[in-house]
């Protein structure tokens, strides 16, 4: 289940790389959240400011690894050359995730993507149909046509042929994980909606929208490049394979999570918050995280490699605080440390 979800997320990125269009340089705070308000009812949401991510954040993070940045741009260019369109120009993406309980210990995640930019959404779908070489089917939702593609085959047909070890491995993992069909349609003239057929239908066939509670979780840092938030009716342990029952109980006490990534002025900052049912559970979570931080210092603190020293600094600099029933984790990593970590990636 989790591999399929991550694969669908990655497919979304590749789909945007394959079918993007026109540039927009203006920064508008909260635009992704306004797009997210159009999502159907969802337990979790993630928003991305694509323009800032591609034009500012990624170049900064990869400033110490120029060849990797060049490789990414080369892949995007190659896909553009295959399809005739350039994908760097999407402005905002909002992802709504429905959490569905399958068994007592297993959940399924069903995402829906809304991707907005300055382009003709129906023209992009026409390009997608051409890129699939006619291998799609049509479904109706009222007067709207939904196009359903084989995600695995579509990625395999349109992936770049230029060689790069880390990129090729990522695409190969994506193809293995993609077993579901991908449904695509236009939400409006410049917005695409895609995901599972059921979630795309839900976007147009129900009036139920994502709640303000979930949206507010993802809007705690309005100027973040990436933000997310989710309600967890059954806690977090279903999302992990755990051998420790005590840790499972701690994770199950978490009922809300949220977080954000901010990249600017030579630093990358990650913030995450977890809210439990009561103060006692939050105190236990706080102490558990502090204990894991101490263990991390003990295991990594004596490492001699430059990357080990970076990890040790990250563990040392992480701030874990509690406010009533909420525990917050904050970490800032300077670009110099990111450069050291990236240096080991081939």
Description:
The structure is a single chain. This protein is α+β, with helices and mostly antiparallel strands. The protein folds into two domains: 1-211, no CATH class; 232-346, 2-Layer Sandwich (Heat Shock Protein 90), CATH 3.30.565. It is built from 13 helices and twelve strands. Strands 4-5-6-7-3-2-1-8-9-10-12-11 form a twelve-stranded antiparallel beta sheet, with helices on both faces. Strand 9 and strand 10 form a beta hairpin. Helix 1 (2-18) crosses helix 7 and helix 6 packs antiparallel against helix 7 (165-177). Mean pLDDT is 80; it is low at 1-29 and 174-179.
Helix content estimate:
40-55%
The number of strands is 12
Low-pLDDT segments, ≥5 res:
1-29, 174-179
- What would you report as the Rg, rounded to the nearest angstrom? 21 Å
Task: Please provide a brief summary of the model.
The chain is built from 13 helices and twelve strands. It is α+β, with helices and mostly antiparallel strands. A hairpin with a 2-residue loop joins strand 2 (90-103) and strand 3 (106-117).
């Amino acid at each position: 289940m989790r591999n399929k979800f991550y694969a669908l997320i990655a497919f979304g990125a590749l789909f945007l790389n394959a079918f993007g269009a026109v540039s927009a340089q203006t920064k508008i705070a909260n635009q992704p959240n306004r797009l997210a308000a159009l999502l159907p009812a969802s337990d979790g949401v993630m928003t991305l400011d694509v323009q800032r991510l591609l034009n500012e954040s990624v170049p900064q993070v990869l400033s110490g690894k120029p060849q990797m940045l060049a490789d990414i741009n080369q892949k995007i260019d190659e896909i553009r050359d295959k399809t005739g369109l350039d994908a760097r120009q999407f402005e905002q993406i909002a992802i709504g995730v429905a959490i569905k309980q399958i068994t007592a210990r297993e959940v399924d995640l069903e995402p829906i993507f809304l991707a907005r930019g300055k382009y003709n959404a129906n023209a992009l779908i026409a390009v997608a149909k051409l890129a699939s070489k006619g291998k799609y089917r049509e479904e109706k939702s009222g007067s709207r046509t939904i196009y359903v593609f084989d995600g695995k085959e579509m990625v395999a047909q349109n992936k770049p042929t230029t060689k790069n070890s880390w990129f090729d491995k990522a695409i190969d993992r994506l193809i293995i994980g993609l077993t579901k069909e991908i449904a695509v349609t236009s939400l409006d003239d410049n917005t695409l909606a895609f995901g599972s057929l059921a979630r795309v239908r839900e976007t147009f066939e129900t009036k139920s929208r994502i709640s303000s509670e979930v949206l507010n979780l993802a809007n705690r840092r309005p100027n973040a490049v990436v933000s997310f938030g989710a309600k967890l009716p059954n806690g977090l342990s279903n999302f992990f394979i755990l051998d420790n029952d005590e840790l499972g109980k701690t994770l199950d006490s978490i009922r809300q999570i949220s977080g954000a990534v901010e990249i600017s002025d030579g630093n990358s900052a990650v913030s995450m918050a977890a809210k439990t049912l009561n103060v006692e559970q939050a105190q236990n979570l706080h102490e558990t995280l502090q204990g894991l931080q101490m263990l991390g210092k003990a295991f990594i603190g004596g490492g001699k490699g430059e990357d080990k020293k970076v990890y040790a600094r990250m563990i040392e600099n992480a701030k874990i605080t509690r406010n009533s029933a909420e525990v917050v984790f904050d970490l800032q990593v300077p670009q110099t440390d990111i450069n050291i970590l990236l240096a080991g990636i081939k």
